[in-house]
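Lecture notes, continued. The same structure-token format from the folding unit now serves as the input rather than the output. Read the line below as a description of shape only.
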């Protein structure tokens, strides 16, 4: 069975306009219990992504004021994406090779979802549990052995 990106992705992507203050962006991330915010103007292509690391490295460590910075100033760009019909094996390999924990899912230039390492681990656990149940339910008849 081949899983595709659209079967795994989270459709609830946190989008923020590029002029959103970093402080407001962080509050939205906390409210949504997520470690990222995708930076995009309304009805426009994605400009970048802000992650916890961007906030630590570009705001907290240098002692900058999050109320005085906007999302566009600290976002990482470009953002890596895949298509909704892409094979998850390919998506996970690409995430691993690039060392990224989030992959946007886009169709016709619009964000339709996101795949995170957390989602991948959760789906892998479900897969292992399913295979384990199948193996546990498999009984070998002694007459089959020999």
């Amino acid at each position: 069975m081949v899983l595709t990106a659209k079967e795994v992705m989270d459709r609830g992507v946190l989008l923020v306009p590029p002029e959103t203050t970093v402080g407001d962006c962080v509050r939205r991330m906390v409210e949504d219990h997520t470690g990222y915010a995708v930076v995009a103007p309304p009805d426009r292509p994605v400009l970048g992504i802000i992650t916890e690391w961007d906030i630590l490295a570009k705001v907290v460590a240098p002692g900058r004021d999050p109320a005085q910075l906007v999302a566009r100033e600290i976002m990482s760009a470009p953002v890596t994406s895949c298509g909704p019909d892409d094979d998850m094996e390919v998506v996970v390999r690409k995430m691993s090779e690039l060392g990224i924990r989030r992959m946007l899912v886009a169709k016709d230039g619009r964000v339709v979802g996101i795949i995170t390492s957390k989602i991948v681990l959760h789906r892998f656990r479900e897969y292992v549990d399913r295979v384990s149940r199948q193996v546990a339910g498999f009984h070998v008849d002694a007459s089959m052995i020999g």
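Point for the exam: The chain has a mean pLDDT of 89.
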